[in-house]
Amino acid sequence: MSDPLLFVAHTGERSGAEKVMLMLVDVALAQGHRVVVACPDGPLAEALPAGCVRVRLPRLGMWGQRGVGRIAGLAGLPVRWLVGARRLRRVLAAERPRVVCNSLFALPSLRLAVLGTSHRERAGWLVHDTLSSRKQRIVARMGRGAVGGAVAVSRASAVPVRECGYPVVVAPHGVPIPPVPSRSTSPEDSTPDASTVRVGILASVTEWKGHRVLLEAVAEVPGIRLDVAGEPFPGDEAFLDELRRRAHAPDLRGRVSFLGRVDPAEVFAVWDVMVSASTSPEAGPLVALEAMAHGVPVVGTDHGGTAEHLADGAGLLVPPGDAKALAEALRRLMSDPDLRNDIAVTARRRVEERHDIEVTLPAMVNALWATGVTS
């Protein structure tokens, strides 16, 4: 059997970063590695494949509380990092594994765990964040001594990590590519009423994903029906309630549907446009690539990996947090089926050339396996 591998995640939720980690776990198992996954309780733990060992961690990051709850969560973060470090230390001592850190906010626990061992494992860090805040950069620097090198999923996410002192290589995300686009980009073919365009957002329902901005933009554009797909993180339930209240206002009433968890392929088959409205930069949103592969034109915010995915005609880019600019982009796409088709064709080609998972996943695995150092 090959060397043991330890994957570390700060959350038990299952969004894009965790989906990538699950793919890496499958590859490691197929290669014959003994695989240990350290993560909190939640959908991620429930999705782990048979054959890997799971170590339970506390939540190592923040989540959706507000006010007093958020202050209490922040105050308890150092304690949770210490608890996580003790549990990781036992794995490091017993297994002496190579380590893949899948989360920025797991780095402090990993650094503390390494301090308590004699053989000083150095992890490979798979970077799913674009470090845009002072808090993120502080956390990144806290983990520096535990990491041999970083693998970033986009050029945008690599730059601030390099500025924090890490050696970095870039290994882009990839997605499966359907044999042919699974939908028509023409609204006459995809909706009963040719005057209506169906727009969707598929994202965790949390504030920085830009749902507020999207609702305000749709309110300015009659003739759009909006699907909100995705579920809130624990602590973000009040934010979902806020969005539902806004959707019942007169300018949106009857035009917004909240779908919850969905099969992406099913919604991509009926959406005319998808929006990635994040107000903070994403490293490389998988959902944008998935939509592009399915022939769905994407409007995204002009920062982070989203800007890389949609550059040069593969989508429309708008300033983050700008509801009027987003509304104008939706108007353009609503009124111009040829533009939607041109974007869809360019986007599909972009994914085929740069983000085919049959190519990108082996490259990411090779980069990660080569990055960690044991001394």
TrEMBL record:
Organism, as annotated: Rhodococcus pyridinivorans
Keywords for the protein's UniProt record, in alphabetical order: Glycosyltransferase, Transferase
Keyword Transferase: yes
Span of domain Glycosyl transferase family: 199-349
Designated name of the protein: Glycosyltransferase family 4 protein
Recorded GO MF terms: glycosyltransferase activity
Domain Glycosyltransferase subfamily 4-like N-terminal residue range list: 15-176
